[in-house]
Design a protein that fits this description.
Helix content: 40-55%
CATH class of the largest domain: Alpha Beta
CATH architecture of the largest domain: Alpha-Beta Complex
Oligomer: single chain
Strand content: 5-15%
CATH superfamily of the largest domain: Spore Coat Polysaccharide Biosynthesis Protein SpsA, Chain A
Number of domains: 2
Order of helices and strands: HEHEHEHEEHEEHEHHEEHHHHHEE
Distance between the termini: 40 Å
Number of helices: 13
Strand order of the largest sheet: 3-2-1-4-8-6-9
Amino acid sequence: MFAALFSLTVTLYAAILLFFILGLFSTRESRTENQPFVSIVIPARNEKDHIENILQDVTHQTYPIDYYEIIVVDDESSDITSNLVNAFSQRYPNVKPMSSQEGSPHLKNKKRALDVGIRASKGEIVLVTDADCRVTSRWVETMVSYFTPDVGFAIGHSQVDSNETLNQQIEALDYLMLSAAARSTAQLGVPFACTGQNLAYRRAAFDEVGGFSSFADSLGGDDNFLLQAVRRKTSWEIVAALDPNSFVRTVPCNSRSEFVSQRIRWASDSLYFKEANPLFFIVIVTTFLANLFPVVFVIGLIFGLGSLSPLINGLAVKFFAEGLMMAKATRLFNNRDLRKAFVSWFLFQIPYIVYMGFTTLTGKSTTWGGRQS
């Protein structure tokens, strides 16, 4: 019975990955040359090592300088982040420093900082990235080009910037697989997820769903919950930005424990999708079970229960499906060098996803920007 459940689960999981792969073949997109006023909003907390890099990037864009503003919201930094931003604002008049302390006490952490910036923004289009990211000189121009009249939300791609160590390669590949799934489902018209490191949406769409108010108590929500709110509550189209000039790079985690903690934080509100997007919730549960069953099988074998063949067969199907997804994603995003980390990632993700799942269910707190969440 248990072997049959594992077989059924891994078959469903493989079918989901094949669905994602199908979406990665889609190149459907529409572009515009319109140049509306844009507001770039960057939340920053203790980012003294990175803030000048992203500000250097966003102040040197191909987009007309009179057509965009840069709002940097300091989120209670204890270092010199705010001083560095203030210094930049003296040289670049379109850089506008703000503080999250001006925001609503009902919003948590990053959402409060973003809300402050968005509420103060003047742009028709809001562009969001993180303070530890890097963008191309055509980032604004390219992201804005996806806003044809019916589009209200554009999902951008982000990737880990360094692949020097095995840990970084595993993190980069893991992130690539997540980003590939986000791009695929958006292309197929059923957007599941996005990243707050590279997002764009109409201010009108943000206001139409009430901003972050409907999920104010959640730890996350500045990206995925907002995406689902726009999908469910408005008629705006949601698209993926396919042009490499729109891609964003982010720094890797400092350690494997920081990486796992980050993923736990991302997964902390998974139960929300049970109502917000039942199809995505099924994907989340199936992914968890497809990684849980092998662990249970191994424990059973240690105690002399069950047989080895169902485990080998199930892992083979999982390996093959994930390998196909990895091959397509690394080719699509020009990250073929990450293929050498696939076996390590495959072995690592099983215990990490199981641990992440149980930690999420038990409500264990995580650290975010030096704050306990």
